[in-house]
Amino acid sequence: MNKLPLENIKVIEFSHMVMGPSAGMILADLGAEVIKVEPVGGDKTRNLKGSGAGYFAMYNRNKKSVCIDMKSAEGHKVIADMVKGADVVIENFRPGALEEIGYGYEQLSEINSQLIYMSARGFLKGPYQNRTALDEVAQMMGGLAYMTGPKDRPLRAGASVIDVMGGMFGVIGILSALLQRSSTNAGQHVTSSLFESTVFLMGQHMAQQVVTGQAAAPMPERISAWAIYDVFEVKNDEKLFVAVVSDSQWVKFCLEFKFDDFASDASLNTNVQRVLKRDLIIARVAEHFKQIELSDLSDRLKSIGLPYAPINRPEDLSDDLHLIESGGLLDIELGGGQQAKLPALPLEFSDQRFGLRRSIPEVGEHTGEVLESLGYSDQKVNDLLADKVAG
Q1: Within this chain, do residues 337 and 291 fall inside the same structural domain, yes or no?
Q2: Angle at Cα 319 formed by Cα 313 and Cα 320, nearest 5°?
Q3: Residue 185 sits in a domain of what CATH number?
Q4: Cα–Cα nearest to 32, from 89, 107, 106
Q5: Which residues pair with 116 in a beta bridge?
Q6: Same domain, 93 and 148
Q7: Helix, strand, or coil (residue 24)
Q8: Who contacts 303 (Cβ-Cβ below 8 Å, separation ≥6)?
Q9: 3-state secondary structure (DSSP) of residue 348
Q10: Are strands 63-67 and 88-91 parallel, antiparallel or unpaired?
Q11: Are 239 and 311 in contact (CB under 8 A)?
């Protein structure tokens, strides 16, 4: 792609973990210059273990790393100089934390009145606004954990879906504010949140209760909207998800798999009728599928245009043919000789994907470059480094 859509936008990112960095990464992939400000010594997210070990690697590509002691007087001057030329600031610290050290929206907007300042929060304004939140807190409070797990066994989703969704809503807010700024010439404070993002996902279930008169059941115990919408065991103990979601698909399904009695049964002509006899249908289909190999069943479902899916693990995706051939995976250098294939932004612009311009930055890799771009002399840069104001 010759010209990236956000290549004239400069972003200063004060963030850690997932929500803020995911917003910065999306903007960076779209072409913005994203300068990640880390404490001298580096963002602690870099060293997380266990389930957090992939956070930094996934959400910090295409960024520059600058290390600044934000609490020092000289650090304040550096940040002020950076903000003067910025379009966007992203932060995801606890409410009031940056205001306490001089970097809240009101404080930075005095330096740059056109600044778009995005706060990634646990909650929007209201009684909960000062509570500490995490992805898991939001999933529990917002109903997602209840809907994901069996009854009385709430279960969080298997990825940081709310952190990332909150970051995505933050990006929507930033882009909307930038568009509005083009006519008003004024910046503003945008806030995205974990809790309200989760509640947004629950909207369909809240509406379901009104429409049906019954509260939505957790997904493992739900009454399916379709007669066939399940994971089936196939030959050699493998599994495949299969769905039949329209009357025309039902006809094709019955013809392909020789369910002649189903096809001729007028009481199964519509989806509503089939759902009423779901147990009968599922038992027959499950028994039939156990005799078919995974590859054969997949090919047959593909040939008649039915939705199906193997049950992949994250490690399987690195070898996925579609992702490889479509440019959906980026080869990213993680440092220390490690390389990983990680997902590209799931967007196409005129059949082009957004790729990699910078791998994961080393701690403070671009400190000197950014300071020099602010007009600092070599001596000034060296002094800041020597005094550990910068790193």
Answers
A1: no
A2: 80
A3: 3.40.50.10540
A4: 89
A5: 88, 188
A6: yes
A7: helix
A8: 256
A9: strand
A10: unpaired
A11: yes
The confidence score (pLDDT) of residue 1 equals 61
Encode pLDDT of 335-355 as tens digits: 888 899 999 999 999 989 999
CA distances from 149 to 51, 152, 157, 158, 354 (A): 20, 8, 9, 11, 35
- 241 token code pair: 């998800």
SS3 179: helix
Q: Which two tokens stand for residue 208?
A: 């379901």
284 and 379 housed in the same domain:
no
pLDDT confidence of residue 225: 87
245 and 302 assigned to the same domain: yes
Q: Is residue 172 part of a domain?
A: yes
Q: Which domain holds residue 380?
A: 10-201+321-386
**d(C-alpha 375, C-alpha 189), whole Å:** 28
Pairing of strands 116-121, 88-91: parallel
Give the whole-angstrom CA distance, residue 10 versus residue 76. Answer: 19
pTM attached to this predicted model: 0.94
Among 298, 161, 159, which Cα is nearest to 235's? 298
Q: How far is CA 75 from CA 59, 68, 363, 371, in A?
A: 25, 6, 17, 12
